[in-house]
Amino acid sequence: MEKIQRSYNLMYMDVVARPFDPKNAVQLLKNSHWNQHIITFLDTAKKLQNILLKSGNLLIQSGGPVFDVDASLSCLVQILSYPYYRTIEGFSVLIEKEWLLQSYPFKHPNRPYTSFHRSEGIEAGPPVTVLMKDWDAIFFHFIYCVWQILQENTTKFEFKEEFLIFFLDSLFDSRFGTFLFNTEKDRQESGMPSFFNHIRTPKNHQGFRNPAYIPPSR
């Protein structure tokens, strides 16, 4: 977890906070070791998936004081193993049960608005134009991992990358109470719109659909 945070901060300082330099951006990104952490997590998730397929059971427990690394790996294994979690509805359920209902601290003090979208010249992931330096990087890291799986298996995902980008935008733009509070009680009492209700409307759901998606045969 600490290594991922340091890597994130280094990427922020060397790639994001500086004026964009297409000649050096890719090398600076490599120097942050951010992609190496992505590769390590994906390799671990695939090994855990093989254990799940062979035994039918899998318990992920890091033994550390935080659960977010476990949540990230658990989600990645489920995405790799079950087509349902590669749908818009399934991915939403996954985030709800593995992150929100476990009281993951999406709410951060003095959190400013942050906008995520693709920048020209970097192909290692869905680059961002503005990032916070000092927020927990593990969920952002998880979304990067999902993006990488999506790029390698385009026809197996019901949603396209714009769905993931909208997800990250919604963490910070304060439109939805879903990510402004850390408990379900506070979310309900706030009376603010739900992110998941928003994306489940037919119009928005259709807007995030991947035209290349091939549903699994029954």
From TrEMBL:
SUPFAM superfamilies named among the record's database cross-references: (Phosphotyrosine protein) phosphatases II (SSF52799)
Alphabetized PANTHER family for the sequence: MYOTUBULARIN-RELATED, PHOSPHATIDYLINOSITOL-3,5-BISPHOSPHATE 3-PHOSPHATASE
UniProt GO molecular function: phosphatidylinositol-3-phosphate phosphatase activity
Organism of provenance: Arcella intermedia
Protein name: Myotubularin phosphatase domain-containing protein
GO biological process: phosphatidylinositol dephosphorylation
Xref: InterPro entries: Myotubularin, Myotubularin-like_Pase_dom, Prot-tyrosine_phosphatase-like
GO CC list: cytoplasm; membrane
Start and end residues of each Myotubularin phosphatase domain: 1-218
Taxonomic path: Eukaryota, Amoebozoa, Tubulinea, Elardia, Arcellinida
Pfam families on file: Myotub-related
